[in-house]
Specification:
- There is one protein chain.
- By secondary structure, the chain is α+β, with helices and mostly antiparallel strands.
- The protein is 42% helix and 12% strand.
């Protein structure tokens, strides 16, 4: 693999300078003199150190891994074509375009950036959380800690009884049918969905039974009841924005103003993630 460090550095700089703070949900401030985003802002958006990103732009940094390039593509809000060019400059083959690529549509990212104060998350077709706001983590738990098949909340629902505790038991059957329908709808579009479906078919009699009934996924996301370990029961509305090209969803939980659930959601926005809520898991 041969990396063109000079062209890679120039490309990163031009993409950084083309982004404005408002494009990524950041305040502009009164004394901003930088053209576009600052290097440290791109580093934070890409989940890497400021020193690492700065060395890439100078150019004197290490050869970035494919994982790092994917993080940069997300942080810089690159389109699929721009992401492919980035990989080429770093000496990698163009990533396969599929529902499993992990690339989030820049338009969806811009909407997500405007929801930083809401309980919002971007999820794949198999229930893998790709992004969460701070309030989403406080409400439903940190989804970034899971690995392997367990990254899929759909998989955990049928294999880990603790994942169901966040919902009243009376709602479990409905959630089970919805999850199976979502997985069956994604089965032919994603290798990952196929792996999750086949794994669950082998270990979960409940999943296998519901699958034989061929439930059909609905676009509508109905009201949800969530039992939080600290604030108790919340009755929430659920909105979903679907990106059909990447088979991803932007999910947002809201509560009607003036209700007890709205007050509890506001409380969670203040107290954030606590030890009691750290282990909860969410539905998509």
């Amino acid at each position: 693999m041969t990396v063109d460090r000079a062209r890679l550095a120039a490309y990163l700089r031009t993409r950084r300078e083309a982004l404005q703070p408002e494009d990524v949900g950041l305040p502009r401030g009164q004394r901003r003199r930088t053209k576009g985003l600052r290097r440290e802002e791109v580093a934070v958006l890409s989940d890497m150190s400021i020193d690492y990103y700065t060395r890439l732009e100078q150019p004197r940094g290490p050869h970035p891994s494919e994982q790092m390039l994917g993080a940069l593509a997300r942080g810089l809000r690159l389109s699929l074509e721009e992401r492919d060019h980035l990989f080429g400059l770093a000496g990698y083959a163009t990533p396969r375009r599929s529902a499993d690529s992990g690339h989030i549509n820049p338009g969806m990212l811009r909407i997500f950036d405007g929801l930083r104060d809401s309980a919002a998350q971007v999820v794949s077709g198999v229930g893998e959380t790709m992004l969460q706001t701070r309030l989403s983590v406080a409400l439903t738990g940190d989804e970034s800690v899971h690995r392997g098949l367990a990254r899929s909340w759909h998989y955990r629902w049928f294999t880990d009884p603790a994942s169901r505790l966040i919902y009243p038991e009376a709602d479990h059957d409905e959630h089970s049918r919805t999850i199976v329908a979502d997985l069956l709808a994604a089965y032919g579009k994603s290798d990952r969905a196929k792996a999750v479906v086949e794994a669950l078919g082998a270990v979960s009699p409940s999943f296998a039974r519901i699958s034989r009934e061929h439930p059909v996924a609905a676009r509508y996301c109905g009201p949800k009841r969530i039992v939080h370990p600290e604030v108790g029961l919340l009755e929430l509305n659920c909105q979903r924005l679907v990106d059909p090209d990447a088979t991803q969803l932007l999910v947002v939980y809201t509560a009607a103003p003036g209700t007890e659930s709205h007050e509890k959601l506001e409380l969670l926005s203040v107290i954030g993630v606590t030890p009691a809520s750290r282990g909860t898991s969410s539905w998509r």
